[in-house]
Amino acid sequence: MKRSWWKEAVVYQIYPRSFRDSNGDGIGDLQGIIEKLDYLSYLGINAIWLNPVYKSPNDDNGYDISDYLDIMEEFGSMKDFDQLLAAVHEKGMRLIMDLVVNHTSDEHPWFLQSSKSPDNPYRDYYFWRTGEKSTPPNNWQSFFEGPAWQYDDATSQWYLHLFTRKQPDLNWDNPKVRDEVREIIRFWLKKGVDGFRMDVINLISKRPGLPDGTDSSDLLGHEHFANGPRIHEYLRFVQESLGDGDVMTVGETVIADLDTVAGYVDEKEGSFNMAINFEHVTLDRDKGSFDPIPLDLQALKGCFSRWQKKLDGRGWNCLYLSNHDQPRQVSRFGEDANYHRESATMLATLLHSMQGTPFIMQGEEIGMTNVDFPSIGDYRDIATLNYYREQLTAGENPESILERVRQCSRDNARTPMQWNDQDYAGFSDTASWIGINTNFRTINVKSEIEDPDSILNYYRQLIKLRREYPVFVYGDFTEIHPEHLQVFSYKRRFEGTELLAVLNLSGKECSFSLPDGPSRRLLIGNYTGRRGITGTLTLRPYEAMVLIDDMRG
Ligand code: TEU
Ligand code: CA
User: Fold this and answer.
1) Fewer CB within 10 Å: C terminus or N terminus of the chain?
2) 160 near 168, Cβ under 8 Å?
């Protein structure tokens, strides 16, 4: 395996709208991020992934871009951006931008031109099709709101949108569109950004003719719009546009199985460094992202270990348990009420001890939880609001819809960062664009800095260990006791050093027999008072430990 800075990095995801508001309008901004860079140095992370900061009417919080070469007004100006980038570099950190080029906003000048008339030179930048106003051109479903087509009365045609109707899909089959994307990439690289997280990048090639979908195992039409016929050609184009600089690329790959993703991230034949995959975050969902079902720990273990083994020596994993599209991990995979600290630190240990690059969603490092909003009026996410309306129309009971929303909404991860126990949680000095989680008086950065046993200090310790012991980064992966019902355990080996991770994924005490091997000592663990570490152990709820052979370190 080749060595790379991005393999050794720990990435911190910033959702700018909710990180820190510097000018008192209730919306996070770029100057707010600059204010908090010292905190990120203290945490120890090496790279920041910024969710979109470009000009946008914010139908989908910046994932609907109306100008790729300018900054969203609420977030600041290009001058603020340049200052942020310089400050990040000065601290020895890197900055990764979100590249959203499967679709634009319907307010982007290209689309405004395109929708003027069927013979406008920009018409072919998007997918326009004729058809009766009563029947969309095909049966494709969008991710966020029913049919993937919107009828345009002015020109009597339909246009394609795989997300909301304010996010029309770009037509990558048009070489002019590809050239535009290359210009965008060059613009930001010239500024000195260090990489891109590429939004739904495996959706950019659609099957010519846009045929009806027949496979209902996922969104109708997916076999024609996900991993489409020219995807590798287009990804190679993106790769070439990136040039030879040592930039990091993370592709978000929706509706893609392990084999498909392995092809994308293959070090020799692939097109980007790592993939944001969805398998582990769909195990506790039935049909859609709002249909929770109980999580089967065996299935979760199996999933992690298949991804680890498949990519070992071939590609690289993007390790994440939450992001701005997912509920909070401690509420989802842990127990935020009974075992807040224990489960949050266990999940942190998991994240940092598998092979791959860990991605921390802002607030995860202090154990931020799902939010308990009283009513649907408190939610802001378009996907959540659309889901609620759809279910209501279908005759569902409002209270039971709201219950699923509380558990599954993307807004769980989007509430403001909890900096301290003062009013507005130190995020702002006024009411914020979305409500603050009421638990900010106890869960906040300031109190966790002061508490040596906090979740935050545990994250700092993990990040430090990862820097000190290359085996965390480059070690291979061998699972131990795959049949165990609660414990996920694995060995990592690199240049004669061996790590052993033992993670009780459950809130129940259980016993676990350590494999034979060298005598080991505890490198990090989330319970105190553990001494003898041989033979059969009794693991407490969510107990986690990483052991290292005694001869080393
Ligand atoms: O997400 C793609 C995507 O498919 C997710 O929206 C996912 O289906 C859903 O969130 C599950 O709950 C990316 C971005 O991360 C997301 O924020 C955008 O809304 C979306 O693309 C459109 O750009
Ligand atoms: Ca602001």
Assistant:
1) C
2) yes
